[in-house]
Amino acid sequence: MYKNCFKRMIDCCLAMVAIVVLSPVMAAVAVLLAVANKGAGVVFTQTRPGKNGRLFKVMKFKTMTDERDENGNLLPDAQRLTKTGKFIRSTSLDELPQLFNVLKGDMALIGPRPLLPQYLPLYSKEQARRHDVRPGITGWAQVHGRNAISWKKKFELDVWYVDHCSFWLDLKIILLTVKKVVVREGITKEGQATTEFFNGNN
């Protein structure tokens, strides 16, 4: 009952309250990024698969510039990630625009993170079950290592959440997320500016 009905109602109420309360923070972040990103904009959207693999546009604060090399190709992520962007990402403030995705119904507050659409054909049948629920701003995998754990482990945690979703589990994840943000754990994969690409299970 919670997963199929009350979870969505609670998400909408909490997202609306969060947008109102955090609007000054979002405005301040937008101003900082407008300067740091050198005219590259402050919000960007990416196509991501949601519940049942349906594609939608996820919103995030933009933490990188659009700087390019002499051939017009974007520089590596590590070179485009500004100091301001690194701070905003480490505090998870870049995820705040996804509150609007929650209101639209594309996302939930808690659930498996929405990943790249090119990963869809690479999942095993079991891993693909992560799309049985709406993707979340934070989730069970995020509070157990986020980008610092392996893809295999991340997908195991996502599917575990799908099978055990409850109000009390979501509440626990919210509390653990606050702790993770404060101590800034698991932001990046070792040796990567963010995390490595998923190349399948072989």
Can you describe what's shown?
The protein is mainly alpha-helical and about 200 residues long. Helix content is about 40%, strand content about 10%. It is built from 6 helices and 4 strands. The protein has helices spanning about 1-35, 75-80, 85-90, 100-105, 150-165, 165-185, and strands at about 45-50, 55-60, 110, 135-140. A two-stranded antiparallel sheet has the order 1-2. Strand 1 and strand 2 form a beta hairpin. Helix 1 (about 1-35) runs antiparallel to helix 4. The protein is globular and about 50 Å long. The protein starts with a helix and ends in a 19-residue tail after the last helix. The model has no long low-confidence stretch (mean pLDDT about 90).
Annotation keywords:
single chain; 202 residues; mainly alpha; two-stranded antiparallel sheet; two-stranded parallel sheet; 6 helices; 4 strands; 10% strand; globular
